[in-house]
Amino acid sequence: MDAFHRITSGPANRRRSIPVDVGGVRVGGDAPIVVQSMTNTDTADVAATIAQVAALAEAGSELVRITVDRDEAAAAVPKIRDGLAARGIHVPLVGDFHYIGHKLLADHPACAEALAKYRINPGNVGFKAKRDTQFAAIIDTAIRYDKPVRIGVNWGSLDQELLTHLMDENSRAAVPLTAMGVLREAMVVSGIASADRAVELGLPASRILISAKVSDVQELIAVYRDLARRCDYALHLGLTEAGMGSKGIVASSAALGILLQEGIGDTIRISLTPEPGGDRTLEVKVAQELLQTMGFRAFLPVVSACPGCGRTTSTVFQELAKEIQAFIGEELPKWKADYPGVETMKVAVMGCIVNGPGESKHADIGISLPGTGEQPSAPVFIDGEKRMTLRGANIAGEFKTIVAEYVATRYGQHPTAAR
């Protein structure tokens, strides 16, 4: 397997699910693991939702889910799609339906047509006698408009009748499961049985994805291992209610990282709680960084920098690392258009002689700055070889020029070099 395939398709042991086309984005099979996100605007507020979807798409979200909870929201969906298209943004929109999805889709055919995918929750798609008919109504709409469906199970809104039934069965078992084991089994059964029912109703398996979200790391790993073993449907991964800040990032990365390494997962979302007025695009950036850190995809050049220690009491290398990161971010849109493969580039900005030269050699291009008491010189390594030494007050400017020249030389004349 070549390097480019390896960084875009996941581990060699990746589970081969049934691929699904979501508005032109291929999910599952051997396709790259897809990053998605969700808005937190009132969907009926067309301008605000367009602005947030645009920000998420520009940050790199390849699918964006929006809440469709009432008539006003459903009526807004085609306006949102058209408003995004007017801005040159064609990210597929996923409608999130609960309780009355069947009615909203029937009453608003323009909404049903505008969405690229429907997400339905088998725990609240309908209750008692209405559950089957309302589920079937949504599936019929999906078939009519040729839309894929995500069966989204969540332990916070699990089908209580199914759970009670499995609890009763478990109580009569010779070796009963724990209560959590029964809950996990209910989630797996709910997802697979709903997907199988959709197939019986006429929706192809290639139009179905499943998710089974919990907020506990170990339980999420366990439930997705069960799902992966027992079905071939494409799987959407996400730790629900992950939390705020570093807690949510660490918990999501721990859970999803293990599953992805085991070859499980076709599309992911990092469900972070933003600070009030915070940046919603953070969840996209974290998802991208997780996939790139694990070597499954490349979204932007990586800048490695040492953490600093007593040998690096100066802040020069920290300032340079920050400046180079900002420089790459500014140049990246143009670079990606002109230099295919530049997103795979690795840059090292190191702080002293201990690990600096070695780390710089491992990068595509690296610089090793002098530590405390070292000679005021900074060797530059390109493709593993020392090429020059920078000195003086303009090291940052000179190194940025060298990076820009490297990009043009490697990825301009040889655009397939990184593949």
UniProtKB/TrEMBL annotation:
<keyword id="KW-0004">4Fe-4S</keyword>
<keyword id="KW-0408">Iron</keyword>
<keyword id="KW-0414">Isoprene biosynthesis</keyword>
<dbReference type="GO" id="GO:0051539">
    <property type="term" value="F:4 iron, 4 sulfur cluster binding"/>
</dbReference>
<dbReference type="Pfam" id="PF26540">
    <property type="entry name" value="GcpE_C"/>
</dbReference>
<keyword id="KW-0479">Metal-binding</keyword>
<dbReference type="InterPro" id="IPR058578">
    <property type="entry name" value="IspG_TIM"/>
</dbReference>
<comment type="pathway">
    <text>Isoprenoid biosynthesis; isopentenyl diphosphate biosynthesis via DXP pathway; isopentenyl diphosphate from 1-deoxy-D-xylulose 5-phosphate: step 5/6.</text>
</comment>
<dbReference type="InterPro" id="IPR016425">
    <property type="entry name" value="IspG_bac"/>
</dbReference>
<comment type="function">
    <text>Converts 2C-methyl-D-erythritol 2,4-cyclodiphosphate (ME-2,4cPP) into 1-hydroxy-2-methyl-2-(E)-butenyl 4-diphosphate.</text>
</comment>
<dbReference type="GO" id="GO:0019288">
    <property type="term" value="P:isopentenyl diphosphate biosynthetic process, methylerythritol 4-phosphate pathway"/>
</dbReference>
<feature type="binding site">
    <location>
        <position position="309"/>
    </location>
    <ligand>
        <name>[4Fe-4S] cluster</name>
    </ligand>
</feature>
<dbReference type="GO" id="GO:0016114">
    <property type="term" value="P:terpenoid biosynthetic process"/>
</dbReference>
<comment type="similarity">
    <text>Belongs to the IspG family.</text>
</comment>
<keyword id="KW-0411">Iron-sulfur</keyword>
<dbReference type="GO" id="GO:0141197">
    <property type="term" value="F:4-hydroxy-3-methylbut-2-enyl-diphosphate synthase activity (flavodoxin)"/>
</dbReference>
<dbReference type="InterPro" id="IPR045854">
    <property type="entry name" value="NO2/SO3_Rdtase_4Fe4S_sf"/>
</dbReference>
<dbReference type="InterPro" id="IPR058579">
    <property type="entry name" value="IspG_C"/>
</dbReference>
<feature type="binding site">
    <location>
        <position position="352"/>
    </location>
    <ligand>
        <name>[4Fe-4S] cluster</name>
    </ligand>
</feature>
<feature type="domain" description="IspG TIM-barrel">
    <location>
        <begin position="19"/>
        <end position="287"/>
    </location>
</feature>
<feature type="domain" description="IspG C-terminal">
    <location>
        <begin position="304"/>
        <end position="403"/>
    </location>
</feature>
<feature type="binding site">
    <location>
        <position position="359"/>
    </location>
    <ligand>
        <name>[4Fe-4S] cluster</name>
    </ligand>
</feature>
<dbReference type="GO" id="GO:0046429">
    <property type="term" value="F:4-hydroxy-3-methylbut-2-en-1-yl diphosphate synthase activity (ferredoxin)"/>
</dbReference>
<dbReference type="Pfam" id="PF04551">
    <property type="entry name" value="GcpE"/>
</dbReference>
<keyword id="KW-0560">Oxidoreductase</keyword>
<feature type="binding site">
    <location>
        <position position="306"/>
    </location>
    <ligand>
        <name>[4Fe-4S] cluster</name>
    </ligand>
</feature>
<dbReference type="InterPro" id="IPR011005">
    <property type="entry name" value="Dihydropteroate_synth-like_sf"/>
</dbReference>
<dbReference type="InterPro" id="IPR004588">
    <property type="entry name" value="IspG_bac-typ"/>
</dbReference>
<dbReference type="GO" id="GO:0005506">
    <property type="term" value="F:iron ion binding"/>
</dbReference>
<protein>
    <recommendedName>
        <fullName>4-hydroxy-3-methylbut-2-en-1-yl diphosphate synthase (flavodoxin)</fullName>
        <ecNumber>1.17.7.3</ecNumber>
    </recommendedName>
</protein>
